[in-house]
Amino acid sequence: MxxxxxxxxxxxxxxxxxxxxxxFIAEKIYRLDPNFETPAHRFEDGVDYVPTNKFVLWGxxxxxxxxxxxxxxxxxxxxxxxxPALLWVTFGSIFFAxxxxxGALWASNRHDAKSIGALSESIVSTRVRSVLMIIIFxxxxxxxxxxxxxxxxxxxxxxxxxxxxxxxxxxxVAVGVLIRRKVxxxxxxxxxxxxxxxxxxxxxxxxxxxxxxxxxxxxxGNWIILLYVYAGIASMLxxxxxxxxxxxxxxxxxxxxxxVLYSAVLLTxxxxxxxxxxxxxxxxPPLWPILFVTIACGALSGFHGIVSSGTSxxxxxxxxxxxxxxxxxxxxxxxLALITIVAVTGSLxxxxxxxxxxxxxxxxxxxxxxxGFITGGALLISEGWGIPLAFSxxxxxVMVVLFAGTTMDAGLRxxxxxxxxxxxxxxxxxxxxNYISTLVAVGACLLLAFGVSNGNYPGDxxxxxxxxxxxxxxILASMTLIVISVYLIRLGRPARYxxxxxxxxxxxxxxxxxxxxxxxxxxxxxxxxAIQVAVMASAVFIILEAWSTISKLRREDNAGDDxxxxxxxxx
Length: 571
Description:
Layout: H1 4-30, H2 39-42, H3 54-66, H4 69-77, H5 82-109, H6 116-123, H7 126-157, H8 162-180, H9 185-205, H10 218-236, H11 243-268, H12 287-294, H13 302-310, H14 321-345, H15 347-350, H16 357-360, H17 370-385, H18 389-426, H19 429-432, H20 434-451, H21 462-490, H22 496-523, H23 526-555, H24 561-564
Helix pairs in contact: 1-5, 1-14, 3-11, 3-14, 3-18, 4-14, 5-13, 5-14, 5-21, 5-22, 6-7, 6-21, 7-10, 7-18, 7-20, 7-21, 7-23, 8-9, 8-11, 9-11, 9-18, 10-18, 10-20, 11-14, 11-17, 11-18, 12-22, 13-21, 14-17, 17-18, 18-20, 21-22, 21-23, 22-23
Subcellular location: Cell membrane
GO biological process, one term: cellular response to starvation
Keywords: Cell membrane, Membrane, Transmembrane, Transmembrane helix
């Protein structure tokens, strides 16, 4: 079967999601109000609260949520076969991720741009806020530790990506300054992307390696330390100076990269080398429920709710933009996951191994993950467009590194927000300070990255984190959907469009969490056991609190217009 059918299936689904389903949710459920004064205007400070053009914000939001996860997750999950991955990516993006991301952005916008953890206090209860913020903190630490390891690995495996990855920083700063000075956005975008691709060309001819004796941790360990130094500094800069323009210009680059990849599929029409349903090895984790936590970003991700409510809500210029930024951002990530499935299952990629696809994917954890996307995608581009293979590989390697890097930028900033919110809530004055809260955030991430080891090199703990990240991520997604659902019930609006996906993903995530806890116990990975058990116990508490709140609202018959007056001071 030709890969074009996978592409058509996914894109037709996404088209329905954008033009039909998201419009219904925006008009009938969230009821966006263009006259509502957003927190970006109400609290504008030029640092975190900055009213932003919706295209710039979409690029910033998209690349902050995308990272490497929508590449790594599908590249692992295709071991079960391409059909399960395709179905979850398509329907998960339409009915789960889009509603979740869009809803978190809208709800946060209506509550002074508070994080999903902080706004749960006024929607559900103070106790839920305290517990949910712990889950969010743990997830952010997992994300930062994992992505630092992914970036370090890719920079070592693909040293051609080093120069363009770091050159993107001054390009982003220049873009930020020019946008601030109201220079034409289209001109900035074209020039910025052109410069980025020129640096990719230079990188493809000039691979760079980091000396292994800088911190005495080897090349990968040294990269991890430097990445946290950079991310810590970046997280304290005004969003308009680095985070926002870097995410935007990377988003523009990704859109161009996706166009090149999708058009390469049309030009080459590769067959699908992978089976629809694979005859997996006996020790493979079960498809149900592990598929739904292996592909998190790219179908549904609790991390997206943190970004939507933590940073994007502070930059929303008009409430009507929430659909464009939130729902379309989720579909953009789904498109990345979709092309990843094609890249790693196409016959062109399988032809690089003597034994075909089965040799490339001998086991569930034996697949090349991000490397599969880079190699398979580069072959597609080279075959379809005639672009040299070395340049194509460098382009996709840089794409992976930059998106993981922008997620680290946003992740460290969000971790700082959580720590500062704790400082405000519990009156811990030092934690309110930007520098101290950032040091605490970086220290927690380093502790996990270097405290959990896979035995390969110092700081490789991120390579073990994917399963616990996936389960934690989906549990947080279900908790976010619960909070938004309670808010809708308070407003007297239908909540079933969120409660249905919430129940499904909660069952899958809890089931997967139990499975992985047993697996970690057998391997003696007690830090990961502790994190997973803490998250699952917290989820049970939040569910009980939310159910108690819903029951109380029903008893009081507190629906309809009266419900809107008690939800938030910003209503």
